UniProtKB/TrEMBL annotation:
Pfam family, one: UFL1
Name of this protein: E3 UFM1-protein ligase 1
GO CC terms, sorted: endoplasmic reticulum membrane
Single Gene Ontology MF annotation: UFM1 ligase activity
GO BP annotation list: protein K69-linked ufmylation; regulation of proteasomal ubiquitin-dependent protein catabolic process; response to endoplasmic reticulum stress
Residue ranges of domain E3 UFM1-protein ligase 1-like in the record: 151-269
Region (Disordered): 20-90
Domain of life the protein comes from: Eukaryota
Naturally occurring in which organism (per UniProt): Engystomops pustulosus (Tungara frog)
Residue stretches making up the E3 UFM1-protein ligase-like C-terminal domain: 275-395
């Protein structure tokens, strides 16, 4: 059997082993400390990061809450500083007491004071509701009117009526004093009133008093509007309104010019070319009306006015009661045969009107017998004559003829 070698451990070997063991132990401890240090620094960084995140989150939350508080403060301030809606007062306590005192003069003052205190709140509430509803309806109607009628359209309409009045005035001046006064009054009551109402209604839109149809405005309504208009325009408009009750077209036009300047209304004055166009259009409108009508009185009226324009080249706006004066004026302007036929036609029209009035009176008293029969026969005879002459009368202006140079 082979013997195993024997290893002898000397003292030197023991020292080296101890040194090696110590070195290994120190190395392991050093690695362990390094590892712990590494883990510790990583966790501290992570912890620091989380700490910062929490801190940032807290700061952001605090900032956000401050903003919310600021916005709340601003909203509260805005709410506090917001002015209260203006309320239109109805009556004061003293005024209510005065009204109650008039109706119940024997009531003691204590009772009147108590009643007024109980009444003022519901009365004011009802009054404000009515005012609010009127305001809303006026605003909607005013906005609708403003869409339909712009300032430009308004000024064109005013200019058209203004120039028509100027042209009608030329025709009026061809008559004598009495007829001239009657024609002037008629023009003031019709076309001049129309243009005045048009201006008043347009300006009334700013004070919520405008109406849908300006032709429905009366003198009383214009006076109410005047009290609401601005002071600088109230004076000229008052004079314009007053001139409607006069007899002078020149005075009215002067007041109209002043009112237009005060209210900033641009009125375009017509030139010769524009006047010829207006004359032609006016004549054509009357001719179309004459073609359609069969009423003898209207045939006489339209024919007389058209003959006046054809012979004088002036427009005329006349009431029915001035037709005899127009026919008399035409005696030197148209052929004698035409004038004689026109006079005959006028006599028949007058007889017809008298007969119609008499027949109405007879119907009221229930007239019968021979008298009623004779009246009926006379009316039929007049009606037949008028029908026969109507075509000839219309031919005075409807038959083809060369238009005058001033109206083309």
């Amino acid at each position: 059997m082979k013997k195993s070698p024997v290893f002898l451990v000397t003292e030197e070997d023991l020292k080296q082993a101890a040194l090696l063991e110590n070195a290994m132990g120190r190395k392991e401890k050093k690695d362990e400390r390094r590892k712990k240090a590494t883990e510790g620094s990583g966790s501290s960084r992570g912890g620091g990061g989380l700490g910062n995140a929490r801190e940032i989150k807290i700061k952001k939350t605090k900032k956000k809450s401050r903003k919310d508080e600021d916005s709340d403060d601003e909203s509260q301030t805005a709410t506090t500083n917001k002015p209260k809606e203006r309320e239109i007062p109805f009556m004061s306590l003293e005024e209510i007491q005065d009204v109650l005192r008039k109706h119940v003069p024997d009531a003691p003052d204590e009772l009147l004071i108590e009643l007024s205190e109980n009444l003022i709140r519901p009365l004011t509430k009802n009054y404000q509701e009515v005012v609010r509803s009127v305001f809303m309806s006026s605003t909607s109607s005013s906005s609708g009117a403003s869409r339909k009628q712009t300032m430009k359209d308004f000024q064109e309409e005013v200019s058209t009526l203004y120039n028509n009045i100027r042209l009608f005035e030329k025709g009026i001046k061809l008559f004598t004093d009495e007829t001239q006064n009657n024609l002037s009054k008629h023009l003031l009551k019709t076309v001049c009133t129309d243009i005045t109402n048009l201006i008043f209604n347009f300006l009334a839109g700013d004070i919520m008093m405008a109406v849908e149809d300006s032709s429905t405005i009366t003198s009383e309504v214009r006076k109410k509007m005047l009290n609401k208009f601005q002071e600088e325009s109230r004076g000229p408009l008052t004079k314009l309104n007053s001139s409607l009750a006069g007899k002078s077209i020149e005075e009215f036009l002067s007041c109209l010019d002043a009112a237009a300047d005060a209210c900033g209304i641009l009125v375009k004055k017509g030139d010769k070319k524009k006047e010829r166009q207006v004359l032609f259009q006016h004549r054509q409108a009357l001719i179309e009306q004459l073609k359609l009508t069969e009423d003898a009185a209207l045939v006489l009226h339209l024919t007389s006015v058209l003959l006046f324009q054809l012979t004088t080249h002036c427009m005329l706006h006349a009431p029915g009661r001035c037709v005899p004066q127009i026919i008399f004026f035409l005696s030197t302007k148209i052929p004698e045969e035409q004038h004689s036929l026109l006079n005959n036609y006028q006599s028949l029209v007058v007889k017809q009107l008298i007969g119609q009035t008499k027949q109405k009176d007879d119907d009221d008293v229930d007239v019968t017998g021979d008298l009623a029969e004779e009246s009926g026969k006379a009316s039929d005879s007049i009606r037949k004559e008028l029908q026969e002459l109507s075509a000839k009368i219309k031919d005075f202006v409807l038959r083809p003829r060369k238009s005058s140079a001033s109206e083309e």
